[in-house]
Amino acid sequence: MMSTPPLRVAMIGHGFMGAAHSQAWRVAPRFFDLPLQPEMTLVVGRSGAAESAERWGWADAASDWRAAIERDDIDLVDIVTPGDTHAEIAIAALEAGKHVLCEKPLANAVEEAERMAAAAQAAEQRGVRAMCGFSYRRVPAVQQLRRLVAEGVLGELREVRAQYLQDWLSDASGPMTWRLDKALAGSGALGDIGAHIIDMSQFVAGDALTRVTGTLETFVRERPLLAPIQPARQKGLGGTASDQKGTVTVDDAAWFTGRFASGAVGAFEATRYATGRKNALRLELSGDRGALAFDLERMNELEYYDATAPADRLGFRRVQVTEPEHPYTGNWWPTGHGLGYEHAFSHQVVDLVRDIAAERTPRPSFADGLQVQRVLDAVERSAAKGSAWTDIPTSTEDQLSTEVGR
Amino acid sequence: MMSTPPLRVAMIGHGFMGAAHSQAWRVAPRFFDLPLQPEMTLVVGRSGAAESAERWGWADAASDWRAAIERDDIDLVDIVTPGDTHAEIAIAALEAGKHVLCEKPLANAVEEAERMAAAAQAAEQRGVRAMCGFSYRRVPAVQQLRRLVAEGVLGELREVRAQYLQDWLSDASGPMTWRLDKALAGSGALGDIGAHIIDMSQFVAGDALTRVTGTLETFVRERPLLAPIQPARQKGLGGTASDQKGTVTVDDAAWFTGRFASGAVGAFEATRYATGRKNALRLELSGDRGALAFDLERMNELEYYDATAPADRLGFRRVQVTEPEHPYTGNWWPTGHGLGYEHAFSHQVVDLVRDIAAERTPRPSFADGLQVQRVLDAVERSAAKGSAWTDIPTSTEDQLSTEVGR
Amino acid sequence: MMSTPPLRVAMIGHGFMGAAHSQAWRVAPRFFDLPLQPEMTLVVGRSGAAESAERWGWADAASDWRAAIERDDIDLVDIVTPGDTHAEIAIAALEAGKHVLCEKPLANAVEEAERMAAAAQAAEQRGVRAMCGFSYRRVPAVQQLRRLVAEGVLGELREVRAQYLQDWLSDASGPMTWRLDKALAGSGALGDIGAHIIDMSQFVAGDALTRVTGTLETFVRERPLLAPIQPARQKGLGGTASDQKGTVTVDDAAWFTGRFASGAVGAFEATRYATGRKNALRLELSGDRGALAFDLERMNELEYYDATAPADRLGFRRVQVTEPEHPYTGNWWPTGHGLGYEHAFSHQVVDLVRDIAAERTPRPSFADGLQVQRVLDAVERSAAKGSAWTDIPTSTEDQLSTEVGR
Amino acid sequence: MMSTPPLRVAMIGHGFMGAAHSQAWRVAPRFFDLPLQPEMTLVVGRSGAAESAERWGWADAASDWRAAIERDDIDLVDIVTPGDTHAEIAIAALEAGKHVLCEKPLANAVEEAERMAAAAQAAEQRGVRAMCGFSYRRVPAVQQLRRLVAEGVLGELREVRAQYLQDWLSDASGPMTWRLDKALAGSGALGDIGAHIIDMSQFVAGDALTRVTGTLETFVRERPLLAPIQPARQKGLGGTASDQKGTVTVDDAAWFTGRFASGAVGAFEATRYATGRKNALRLELSGDRGALAFDLERMNELEYYDATAPADRLGFRRVQVTEPEHPYTGNWWPTGHGLGYEHAFSHQVVDLVRDIAAERTPRPSFADGLQVQRVLDAVERSAAKGSAWTDIPTSTEDQLSTEVGR
Q1: What is the ipTM of this complex?
Q2: How much is the average pLDDT of B365-378?
């Protein structure tokens, strides 16, 4: 491995996403043969970066992201900050000739995402690569779903069902977090987890949403503010409440119905109030020859229904996506041994590094990320207009973005 | 049993619903102590009624439903014909002083349902009873869901998820049936199976929908006509195709989002194209203290999540609704022995007969059936207006109809 | 139907099994075309037979089973009494030229079962038929399992897993019932529910056990006696306790491992102490080309694993055995509509009546029932000898009994 | 972290277990605060150790395990070689004052395990620690099971069901591997995976097996030998066949019934022929107050049945063991995010390092490992004696070994 050229990485941000990305950069080269050797060179955080460097194994630390841009010994900038900062950092990095991995959502606003996609397209011309981090695409079962769809097992796609059900806001006495503040988070359940089901359904279907009708709801409009001092290593979704109240300015839940370019219809729900559902990202695709289903709560499995089987033995089969024949899994453990949440981040690193070395456009591209942002925006605009059907703008770049599923 | 007064029944119609209702009238008195003894007096069918009488055990047969109205020895008229005939028969029966059990949907049009509800209300004054046959309310697990909600296990209800997923139209070469012809069926998936999820969700929640936004879709607009001669005992959903084509004039699938009076939001889907799903009527209710779920494909089970349990042992529990403590089940078999589809019809007969004897209004009443019809109508109107939010009209009678769940 | 010749039935016994059999005789002819028309002529019970006749719809009642033998107008005797009475009644009925349906277990002792099988074999020569009532064979999913095995989907059978898990004795304060008294019940969990997994596994596998090693256990050796007066319509597994104690003389649970004639190995467990398992009769067969599984708690489903499918999409598929292509189901309801516990009894009646009319030997025959009894006996003898491997005697008649699975 | 004292580790062996242990040593300190800082100092392998050092991140490499014993800069020896080498290496390491982590099974023979346990006991006196690597104890769901049992949720334990179902030998044309050679592997399914269900059931129950009756079977006695040249990075369970045949000298499957000290009865099955089951380590414990179940194929879940809940809402609940309240999980990802196979190895490292620093005896101790070996041996002896019940010898050390479940 030491004979491979290095890929020197700076990570901007160091919350729980930083932990996941650090683990990916550390672990991926141990289990996959990579054409470039990632080096964990620099971590950037406004406070506590040095401690994060030590904990997560980065060689150096800085408090301003511009340090990563300015240093010559950085080849790739990995952005895991909140969405409102993505555009500025990513564009600067690309313009400085650094590859970029940017966490989803690509940005908090379409206009920002458009500028990012344009910057990525320009950078492409110079051999500089950009990827949007929809890591769930790299869950082996999700890749396997895509493979099966691409092979044609669905026949003509008619229906998509996609839900992302969580319940961490179900208790109305739970405190405010930055995720409930529109200024910081941009959006609520829609942008945070709705983005995942949009990206995953389009990726797996190999099809793009063209119009939507949607509804947003905020069930609990006031919540206690977070106490000023929080427990160490707080993991993003919890926290200790104070006596003061704050206003929730994002949606708690979103429901939308969309039309795909192929004519298929998708029903979507994203909520943080589905009591008892912890991380139920569910997808089901129904075609005239078969159906496929997935639930992130059982992420090592998929379900496949082959409608062409003999009529007396039709049924959804539970495929354990843990075998050598499945995407990525052969590099890990023997048959039947499950992977966890963070493995998808390692696979993301693997694919990105290989794309950079092969001079290919990584996917999901920034154009893909922009397209998701446009769907989110169309849902918001539809909801604001009494659920009127709202078109999702397309552009030349978008044509690219529907070529999902490599 | 012989000392109990008789309840002489005429059944109008004799398709597969007739088989289910006949079984209920025959079996219910064997397993439940009833205050009136049902007698299977007359079956009416435009053709083949005599054969049906023999097969299903009715004492007499006629070809015109008016025979049932005119005969003095009929106490109750059980209507299992297609929806376009319900209003005329039911109103005539009620006016003739006969109790009525009318299959869902109450009618094909709101106006018809309104007249029926008015007739039922008038008949009530004279001690004549009317029930709308949403038999799935009488599945033991559904009654148990309602009991748990009424007891307060959900806390504040926030979200309802309801799907009725079937796949019998998934094959585009399958032939037309009367169910795909708007003139006869009134509606497609929406009216046929969407009606069930509307009724069941309102019943279990004890809450009424007040407005909706919806979308309808017909995926396959032309299908082969049925061959003139069909196999004997054809069961309603299949059939043999001819060479000629007919036009599908109803919806294949419907998606709608609704607001309940309590403020809860419901997401609904009814489709006949969910490949691999045979009879998946699924309901999930999420509140701040718990959640409940049901799937008709596993009709002897429910799922219950108690959010107030200790944090290290929270989880959806699978309750087998087959125990003596559960509704209806103690009258059948020992612990752990499942019931089937037709048992709900027996329970419907049990409750109806007991209500008649006790001089109570049976539920679901015709007003309840009308309310479901108004929801269906609002979905259709919303879909026709680009999914605009559409109010569901209320009236004095509707106040009654929200008192679900006895 | 009225033109078909009658089959006049007398039922001996009228507990909960009597209810199930009555329902079968009443309902089967409504849903299946039968060559003989069952007539519910006589019910026999030592007390309360007249009430049972009225409740369950039998034309006449008697207190002594000999009445059924003596009457000329009885064609078939249906025996649902406890096992200690089976031999005397069945042999008398067969000798009197009456067909016999005898509930499982065939008898409480091998010697009795041998005499019954001999009587059945002699009666065969005179055109008189005998069937042992292992009704679970007639659950559609179980028949479908047998069909798939007969078709060869398992390849070479290696392993059988069979469990019958119940929990109604889990509470040590629950009272004694006749089922815990060896003098009446003959055996405990082994004979009652172990008999089912022996019969079902042999039937589905098309293979016979030849030797076993087994263990029996009685966890709770003393229980309160039943109070003298019990609630009306007590359903056999419960009851009200008195202050006095009685001794449990049967096994609470049994575990045994057996060798099939083919060389396959079976692991069996029958218990009434599997807390939370209400009626979990589970079967799994593993061969080199596939596997099949079943759980009576989800009796409308089976699971099928096709090991010859492409390696990236292998998985157990959940087949809903509710379709027209499946055994029996097309006679009942449309696609996706589940059946319940009692339907298997109707199917048993259907097959028996057709066999009688076709002059065929019904299966399971008394020889089949005897063979199950010999397996049970071998398990008991093994357990008494410190789990030593114990052969199951075979005979000419047994050769017949391994031709299971028509 | 750098201020903590180092713990310098040498790993002996570098197959797939070496990959898992390397990952654990690398990752554990990133997610858990440890009192000693593990340093990956040396890896030993008879060939290819240098490559493994580079791939898995060990500072140095050697070809003879004695190098690890002799070097002063090694504090802990981690043994992941086949079982026939464990005793020699472990005893030498302990005598040299090095802590030892030894993979399960502790040894291939009881006599070896006895010597190892004695060596560990002696080393204890000098502050040198030894742990046997039954990593599945450290799956969060398994720890949570143990917590619940210790809290008393089962009441009086009656029954244990434990199965380890794999299918990688189901295809009779699959080649020989060292795991099928008694000289190397010591035992087949029994020792390899049967050991896991013995350890896990005793650990979770907090109870020890005292006697067993068992059966072993080798379904396929001859298999193709492995071709001399195998694909790179072969993962232990597969391989390419040659034309020559070899003899399988170990068991393919094992079934045994055991008595626990408490009086509970356990039914065990370990097989590599359970077609379609990839890694189904299943455990169920039934007591008079509740039941608990687990399946390694869904390793982030457990099932809990509380028999003391109201009778109308009893049911097995599926607990997602992914919450901050659960063992280990709070150190990883937010609520609802699953872990994979290798995380249990990280938890093993965490507990071992903490025990060493706290001067506690790690569990499972070598005495625990010896006790499992004695159970395996008793099963083999029982099988050789026609399944006769066979006692499991106890000793003073064994008393220790039943104190499971810290």
Answers
A1: 0.94
A2: 97
With residue C92 as reference, give the H or E element that holds it. helix C86-95
* Whole-structure pTM value: 0.96
The answer to whether the beta carbons of residues B360 and B96 sit under 8 Å apart is no
- Nearest alpha carbon to residue B219 among A160, C281, D29: A160
Q: Which residues on adjacent β-strands are paired with residue D257? A: D213, D267
**Strands B6-12 and A390-391, how do they pair?**
unpaired
Task: Tally the C-alpha atoms within 13 A of residue C7's C-alpha that lie toward its C-beta.
Answer: 29
What does the block give as tokens for D382? 């029982």
3-state secondary structure of A219: coil
Question: Among all residues of chain B, which has the CA nearest to that of C22?
Answer: B30
* Interchain proximity D54–A1, CB inside 8 Å: yes
Query: b or e along C57-67 (b: 16 or more beta carbons within 10 Å of the residue's beta carbon)?
Result: bbebbbeebeb
A-chain residues near B305 (CB < 8 A): 275-276
Contact C147 A326 (CB under 8 A): no
Contact residues on chain C for B238, CB-CB shorter than 8 A? 324
Domains in chain A with CATH codes: 6-136 (3.40.50.720), 137-391 (3.30.360.10)
pLDDT confidence of C405, banded at 50, 70, 90? very low
Distance CA(C22)–CA(D270), nearest Å, equals 44
- Contacts with C193 (C-beta within 8 Å, 6 or more apart), sequence order: C164, C166, C270, C272, C281
Which of A263, A267, A290 has the CB atom closest to B275's CB atom?
A: A290
- For A372, counting Cβ atoms within 10 Å of its Cβ (0-12 exposed, 13-18 middle, 19+ buried), the class is buried
A152 touches chain C (CB under 8 A): no
What pLDDT digit, counting tens, does each position of B75-124 carry?
A: 999 999 999 999 999 999 999 999 999 999 999 999 999 999 999 999 99
Give me the mean pLDDT over the C121-145 stretch.
Answer: 98
Distance CA C359, CA A318 (A): 45
- Run means of pLDDT, 10 residues per run, chain A, 406 residues: 85 94 98 97 96 96 98 98 95 98 95 97 97 98 98 98 97 90 90 97 98 98 82 54 90 98 98 98 98 98 98 98 97 95 98 98 97 97 98 66 40
pLDDT band at D395 (very low <50, low <70, confident <90, very high): low
Distance, in angstroms, between A382 CA and closest chain D CA?
A: 31
Count Cβ atoms below 10 Å from residue B240 Cβ, excluding itself: 13
CA distance D282 to chain C (A): 13
Assess contact for C34 and C28: CB atoms under 8 A: yes
Q: Which of A55, A279, A338 is opposite residue D336, by nearest beta carbon?
A: A279
Instruction: Match 């020889």 to its residue by tokens.
Output: C367
Structure tokens at C312: 């990236």
Between residues 329 and 368 of chain C, which touch chain B (CB distance below 8 Å)?
330, 332-343
Evaluate if residue D232 carries a pLDDT over 70. Answer: no
Report the neighbours of A using a cutoff of 3 or more CB pairs below 8 angstroms: B, C, D
pLDDT tens, residue by residue, D100-149: 999 999 999 999 999 999 999 999 999 999 999 999 999 999 999 999 99
Residue B330 corresponds to which tokens in the numbers above? Answer: 């103690």
d(CA C200, CA C208): 11
Token reading at D389: 């019940």
Of D297, D323, D343, the CB nearest to A320: D297
